[in-house]
Write a structure and sequence with these properties.
With 198 residues, the protein is mainly α. 67% of the residues lie in helices and 0% in strands. It has one domain. It has helices at residues 8-16, 30-48, 50-63, 67-81, 83-86, 92-105, 113-125, 127-130, 134-147, 157-160, 165-186. The chain is globular and about 45 Å long.
Length: 198
């Protein structure tokens, strides 16, 4: 949500991006479709960034094929807990999260039912803010473990990652700084992002 900005239809496209398969984006309104494509670009760039590849290699001995999912969760945590360092929003993370959820709640005509249920859960449990709290992240990871049809141990993430904290934080900052520079240059977001020095 941060890199894609808060333009309503673009934010919706970013939010539903994982639910839009193949060329389905072509049937969406232009700015929603743009948001879907931005979401795909961000995911691809983040996944293939050398810093992310290094982080997944660190996590793989513990999380195996779920190391990519574990890294996504960890990135959410690192962004949330240091949000004011990255985003200059008057309300901080709670204000940003509330604004984003309000925008999405007003655009539900473009949001598939399953993503609407996820949106409702985000608001009900205040997950966007909770991602910054280790205890809340444990609960989120445990809920994901319960939904995955094979044995996973994402719930261990908050207890294990501290062993490599310095490297993982450095990799996140390197990756996210590069993405900020690239995506704000392409399409400036509807909120100011702070300049971060590597």
């Amino acid at each position: 949500m941060v890199l894609g900005g808060l333009e309503p239809e673009v934010l919706v496209g970013n939010f539903i991006g994982d639910a839009v398969k193949g060329n389905q984006w072509k049937a969406l309104p232009a700015r929603v479709a743009h948001g879907v494509l931005v979401h795909r670009q961000i995911d691809s760039k983040a996944d293939q960034h050398p810093a992310s590849l290094s982080s997944r290699a660190i996590l793989r001995p513990v999380f195996g094929r779920m190391s990519g999912v574990a890294l996504d969760m960890l990135h959410d945590h690192l962004l949330a807990r240091a949000f004011p360092q990255w985003v200059d929003h008057a309300g901080g993370l709670p204000g940003f999260a509330g604004e984003a959820l309000d925008i999405l709640s007003g655009q539900t005509q473009h949001i598939p039912p399953r993503r609407q249920r996820f949106l409702e859960a985000l608001r009900r449990h205040d997950w966007l803010v909770g991602y910054g709290d280790a205890s809340e992240m444990r609960r989120v990871c445990a809920a994901m473990d319960a939904r995955i049809p094979w044995e996973t141990e994402l719930v261990r993430l908050m207890d294990e990652w501290g062993r490599w904290e310095a490297d993982l934080v450095w990799h996140f900052e390197e990756m996210f700084t590069d993405l900020m520079e690239e995506f704000t240059a392409q399409s400036p977001p509807c909120l100011p992002l702070r300049t971060w020095q590597k």
